Amino acid sequence: RKEVEQDPGPFNVPEGATVAFNCTYSNSASQSFFWYRQDCRKEPKLLMSVYSSGNEDGRFTAQLNRASQYISLLIRDSKLSDSATYLCVVNWPPSGNTGKLIFGQGTTLQVKP
Amino acid sequence: GAVVSQHPSRVICKSGTSVKIECRSLDFQATTMFWYRQFPKQSLMLMATSNEGSKATYEQGVEKDKFLINHASLTLSTLTVTSAHPEDSSFYICSARLAGGYRDQETQYFGPGTRLLVL
Fold this sequence. Notes:
The complex is a heterodimer of chains A (113) and B (119). With 113 residues, chain A is mainly β. Chain A contains no helices and eleven strands. In chain A, strands 2, 4, 5, 9, 10 and 11 form a six-stranded mixed β-sheet that branches. The termini of chain A are far apart. The model of chain B has no long low-confidence stretch (mean pLDDT 89). Chain B starts with a strand and ends with a strand. Chain B contains one helix and eleven strands. In chain B, strands 2, 4, 5, 6, 9, 10 and 11 form a seven-stranded mixed β-sheet that branches. A four-stranded antiparallel β-sheet of chain B has the order 1-3-8-7, with no helix packed on it. The chains are: A mainly beta (113), B mainly beta (119).
């Protein structure tokens, strides 16, 4: 089983649509979770952290289900500029200050006019 | 937000040459920097973790003698791809982690990446 697994997509949606991405992780001891966004041929940029209680940032909502080891990202009212690859990222349980991030393969979103 | 730079942004070299990539944290100190590699249509794969003043920790399958990492200061880490071959062609990205509280320890800021093409 992959450490972090995502549906690669692509997800093709019209502007204004709501789209949801899912992610599962294998290590139940993981403590921190993130969604990153990566545009074509660019570096990843942090979109949002994911907290146990769920959190929202504008049109973006992230949820975490520790029991199922499942993370989700919901994008409402999709914009053309949301087209990108969304990376689910999980920390590898840290030993002291040596924690590292494990990246999923990413889910590609294409928003069309 | 914190800024990380990488140099060069792209490099084309002949097979057998060595290539050095620099990663700098511009406005913060980073006790830990990470080096990743990304092949087309694949995700980022961690190559090594670099701690200032100590030896890097390499991930399984990454040759430490081929990918030399030096982290001589709190703002600079370098990756040298020695005797590069065409299969080393990839997108190399560094990241730096802020020194700080618990949450800060988890946040990594990424450089813009270096595209390496080995002919």
